[in-house]
Each structure stands twice: as structure tokens, then as C-alpha cells.
Amino acid sequence: MLRALFISLSxxxxxxxxxxxxxxxxxxxxxxxxxxxxxxxxAAVRQLNQQGLLATLDPLGENTQTRExxxxxxxxxxxxxxxxxxxxLRANVSIKLSQLGGVIDPQLGYDNLxxxxxxxxxRRNFIxxxxxxxxxxxxxxxxxxxxxxxxMNNVGTVIQSYLYRSEDDTRxxxxxxxxxxxxKGAYQEPAHLAYPKKRDVDAAFDRLTDMLxxxxxxxxDWQVSEDGRFxxxxxxxxxxxxxxxxxLNQTRDLYLHAHQVExxxxxxxxxxxxxxxxxxxxxxxxxxPFGSHWYPYFMRRLAERxxxxxxxxxxxxxx
Length: 319
Known about the structure:
51% helix
């Protein structure tokens, strides 16, 4: 119930205007978000690198409504790539297709993504195209596939284990040699498209983990960059320790080297788990969001973590 409520609020303009005026909302959100500016985000990444952790930077923003906004979002990403190179950070960038205008016009999203990938290539960097709700799954996969066909191999994408279609999509991406970040999924989807029960989402996550690790086993020619910008083909992105344990066991059973799989965790959450995985020799990449458009991301994090949600609700009831 709480999950559905917060996901619904993440899309509600009236709620965004109301909640973002409260200082408490930002104080809670800042646990998950590395500041408003590129400079603050890069400072956070530098600290993570000093701890032996990699990063992927997410300049927050989605569902741009005008071509001008999409152009501005693209410019921010281009500048971010320049700064990562200038400061010699071990980080890549995660973006959303709707951020680049993909909802306005899929061709606009593709054109802006090509600009980003060209700059990333010049800066020896990698772009992960995040997955959004199911209305954008097919167009996101198509755009990533088009980029690959044009020889832009520095692009990967995300698979959500709660969608029924994800096994077929994962098989397709493995065949294309696309690097995949595996997540459970953070949007509210109808039961005819996604597993409604957690145990089924978890079981699907393990099946997809197995598929991706076996794909990595077969992809002997994939090169992980020494500067930590290009990830392995599979990135297991979860804080669920049972899912992580399954991935660790499968990695060992398949005789994969530690550098052939990456674990990704969210900024500000389970620092103990981040350190533990890194100590075992696995690449650990922290998803670092930043920017003024933090509200939808914040609401989805509340939906995922009941303890944070109850803290926020108690504050609302006390007002």
C-alpha cells in the first residue's frame, strides 16, 4: 500500500509543489542525493573513489516536456562527461531517455543520446540508459539497439526483474553484447505486465542473474577499463542480501573472476554492504544522483524502503 502511494505521488505535480517546499523533505532526500550541483556530485564521487568504490552519476531529470529542456539536459550531461575526464574520476554516467526528449519524440531522444555517446567516446567513458516505466521499455531497448548498430559500443541499459518480458529482453541484450544493469524495478506496474508478488520478483531476479553471468562467461572478449568507467557485462544492482549471495555463489560456481561481475548500490544506503563487497575484491559502483529535480527519485526511494517512508509520514502527521 505504501509503495503504491509513494509511486503515485512521484508523478503528481501538486504533491511535488507541496512537498518540495518543506525543508524536512530535502533533509531526508539528501541522504540519497549528492547535492544540487555538478561540483557537489563530483566531490561525492571523489570521496567514493578514495574508498576504492566506483560511481555512476545520475543528473536527475525525466519526462522533459519541451525540446529546449531536452537540449539543456543534454548539455548538462556533456559538461558532466567533460568534468569526469578533467578531474580523472572513476565514474561513468546514467541517464534516462525521457530526459533527452524521448517522450516528446523518440527520434529526438535518439539524436540527443548519439550526441552524448559521441562525447563519452571522446572522453573514454560509458553511458547507461536507465529503464523507466513499462511505457518506455520497448523504445529504450530499440534506441540502445540502434546506437549499437551504429558502432557505439559504449552504451548499456537496465533490465527490471519484475516485468514478465525481461527474460526475452535479457536474452536479446546478451546476444547483442550489451552491458546490463539488473534491478528489481521501482515503478508501479499493472499485474498483466509485472509480477505483483515480491517472491516472484526475487525468483525472476535470480533467473536473470544466472542468465547474465552465463553470458559473461561466454563473452571472453569484453574488456573492463582499468579506469573503472566501463563496467563488466552484468551489473547486479540490489541491496537484497539474498540476491547478492545468490550472485556471489553463481559467480564462484561458474569460475568467473571477480572483475567479470559488478555490484551496484545506491548512494547513502548500506555503506557496510558496499565496503564488504569491495573487500571481497568485486568492483562496487555507487549510483550517485544529483540535481534540483530530485522529487520523483526521492519518492521512489521512499516506496522501496518502508523505514524511511514511516519516518516521513510521522513528520507529516505532526505538522
